[in-house]
Write a structure and sequence with these properties.
The protein is mainly α. It contains seven helices and no strands.
Length: 258
């Protein structure tokens, strides 16, 4: 149960990280996910109450109620995971991660389809255990997917900035060939390229750390994930610093005495 809640909390953290770039459709889907999560928490509470009543009274009625509430709870848990994985797919990670997410999605969909046929508490526990065993790999995949999505955003921004810088450099070279003093502009260009190299290094570092993630305790996995987030944050900071140099170059070209 603890690992399952870690996974759900993880997505909330991911939503915060990408909140500035989510689409209206994604936001609507996220609200549906939150609604399903609330439903899951309600079914969990009902399941715990019914389970305790059965353990206390051991009657056929309490047993039937426990089985019914257990099945409803397991279905809600699977449905929550399904929406969670679909939201990750909504952000368009790399094809490799899309394939893995779809495979994971198929597992929970197939698992959901088996629950309605369960006829006793022993089978319900067995069915539940199969999903619980799958939570650890799902947690790793989720974290790797989130990192992949964030890194793709950084890569795209970095690539666009490189294109802008290339165009600016052409203008600087034109001015230089016409006898203009472009020393400051060249210095800013070199500074931008230095930041760009640092961005690429941090992206590679974050990707390497992400590739090494493996099923562990949720606490240790969270620690490893936090380390990767720090690297991603540093890459984003270098990206912002590079942007500042591009802005200065554009201003100087526009308003400078050339």
């Amino acid at each position: 149960m603890k690992r399952f809640l870690f996974i759900l909390f993880l997505f909330s953290s991911f939503y915060f990280l990408v909140s500035s770039i989510v689409s209206a459709n994604f936001d609507s889907a996220y609200q549906s996910y939150l609604s399903q999560y609330d439903q899951y928490r309600l079914t969990l509470s009902n399941y715990q109450t019914a389970r305790n009543r059965y353990l206390t009274y051991q009657t056929l009625t309490s047993q039937s109620e426990a089985l019914n509430n257990t099945k409803i709870f397991l279905q809600a848990r699977d449905q929550t995971m399904i929406l969670y994985l679909k939201l990750l797919l909504e952000k368009n990670p790399d094809e490799n991660y899309r394939k893995l997410l779809n495979e994971d999605l198929s597992f929970y969909q197939n698992h959901l389809n088996t629950i309605s046929a369960v006829g006793n508490l022993t089978d319900a526990v067995s069915i539940s255990d199969k999903a619980k065993e799958h939570f650890a790999p799902t947690e790793v995949l989720s974290r790797q997917t989130i990192i992949n999505i964030l890194l793709n955003k950084l890569k795209n921004i970095n690539l666009n900035q490189a294109k802008i810088e290339s165009g600016l450099e052409e203008k600087i070279n034109f001015l230089k060939n016409n006898g203009k003093d472009v020393t400051t502009l060249e210095r800013w260009t070199l500074s931008f390229k230095g930041k760009q190299l640092l961005v690429n290094q941090k992206i590679e570092e974050a990707q390497a750390l992400s590739d090494k993630l493996e099923p562990k305790s949720s606490d240790q996995l969270s620690k490893d994930f936090s380390e990767i987030q720090t690297v991603v944050y540093n890459a984003n900071q270098y990206l912002k610093e590079g942007t500042s140099f591009l802005i200065e170059i554009e201003k100087e070209l526009k308003y400078g005495n050339y």
